[in-house]
Write a structure and sequence with these properties.
The protein has 368 residues and is of the alpha/beta class. It has 13 helices and 8 strands. Strands 3-2-1-4-5-6 form a 6-stranded mixed beta sheet. A two-stranded antiparallel ribbon has the order 7-8.
Amino acid sequence: MDKIITSFVGLDVHKDSIAVGIAAAGREPPRFVGTVGPQWAPLCKALGRLGRPRELQIVYEAGPCGYTLARQLLSHGYACEVIAPAKTARRPGDRIKTDRRDALLLAHAGRAGELVNVTIPDERDEALRDLSRSREDAVRARLKARQQLKALLLRHGHRYTGKTSWTAAHERYLSDVSFAQPAQDIAFAEYRSAVREAHERVERLTEALRAQLEHWRMRPVVEALMSLRGIDLIAAVTLVAEIGDFHRFARPRELMGFLGLVPSEYSSGSKRRQGEITKTGNSHARRVLVEAAWNYRFAARVSRVLQVRQEGQPKAVRDIAWRAQLRLARRNRHLTARKLAVNKICVAIARELSAFVWDIARQVKPLA
């Protein structure tokens, strides 16, 4: 049966409550329905009073509560969209923000067609994304633990003279360190234990990602992206898990905007001023691309490691990866000759690299 939308419902979703507003199709002002608990039963009861599922268009902003509510609504026949909060228009002079006003604003903007929805990921893809983000958190925790250990050593005059920390040689150095007071030895031992546990956690999550990738439907896309210089297994998994379906971007510039890699701009009349990158959208994928962009400081070449990663890939994928090396290495040399700041150069390379990522991802199909 065809859906005939007669009302637009805005939900302001929180951990402990959901505020409900509704705007009937037409020009009548929206009205506030009330606040219900976060459970499905009271919300379903409240929506039942507003109309049949095929008559309601429901919107709520993306937030910490995730997509569970959207999936419940869709499974019960409701039309539901999750909205990007940063792109919800608000009056500049509006200085009052309440759950009631937010629900009414969503209902009104939904009726006017002024909202920008985000893609609700497949549950399998979201599971890999959660695992990827947990590894990222573990890497951050490991870095913090290492910094704390080094801070203790520095405070008491212990300086490692080797070239690289956290190697076998560095571990042998740490095993010979001792302090004047027993309390400091205990603190040092606890810091070392924290570093070791954090490292083991990162390794466990890395192996879990490798294992889960074998059964993931997006594995062909991940393996294709690994043909690019600077994008290894972890980086490729992060990009695919965070971006999802690349076909939803009609042009590379749309992906650049999604990643927040395009310059901000304020132009008026004959004046045009561009500033820093917008940094909107997905920060996880943006970080991976910026880190990968550092690899294009060097001349284009296919190393042994990269050659192994490209084995079994279609010729079209390998050709795109090689064109990326040639262009980005040349671009890096050109920007360096202009004496731009190295961070600006890296971001510019990352922006162009995202276009090659977009092109390669569209060359292969996910598994069924």
